[in-house]
Amino acid sequence: MEKLSEEKRRFKVDTRNLIDVTLMSIAITLFGLIATIKPELLSENIVFGLQLALTLPLFMCGLLSRIKEATYSNSKRWAKLSALSFTTGYGFFLNVVGLIIAFIAPIYMSLAFFGVNTLLTLVRAGIVVSYDSSELKKRIIREIYQILLIVFLGILPALGVY
User: Fold this and answer.
1) What are the helix (H) ranges across 38-135?
2) pTM of the full structure
């Protein structure tokens, strides 16, 4: 894989930060709406409430880590922390949205939401690997982690398993 120029690297960091800020804003809005309209969801459904609450610090950690990633010349540790924080926060965010759908609509809509997100995650990973096969191991680990988050903290709770 070719090394990114400084300009492209900064653009990538800035774009990812914008995504984190946007998702964090949506999560804050969801938290505020749920706390106002139906606060019992946060205490009665611990899987849902915890994921919604943890989404915010995870996105913030990803955001701050990515800023550090852009300022250090050897930034692999910051990159790993930002990737882990974002992947976990994004998984929690998807689960929160999927669980909200499960609370207000037929279960098949929630399952469709989770299924399409999982499929698109795999498609994106496949495209990344098609451009750079050295990314295969990292993408497999990241996507398996993402899918496990969705299954155990999204799909199973939506189905009422716990």
Assistant:
1) 40-44, 46-71, 76-104, 107-131
2) 0.88
Helix axis angle for 76-104 and 136-150, nearest 10°, is 30
Contacts of 110 (CB under 8 A, 6+ apart): 98, 99, 101, 102, 158
Helix (H, G, I), strand (E, B) or coil at 152: helix
Could you state, in chain order, the average pLDDT of each consecutive group of 10 residues for the chain (162 residues)? 70 84 92 90 90 94 87 85 94 96 96 97 93 91 95 96 88
End-to-end CA separation in angstroms for the chain: 43
Structure tokens at 94: 């998807």
Write out the two tokens for 79.
Answer: 């990159």
Per the CB < 8 A criterion, the answer to whether 87 and 20 are in contact is: no
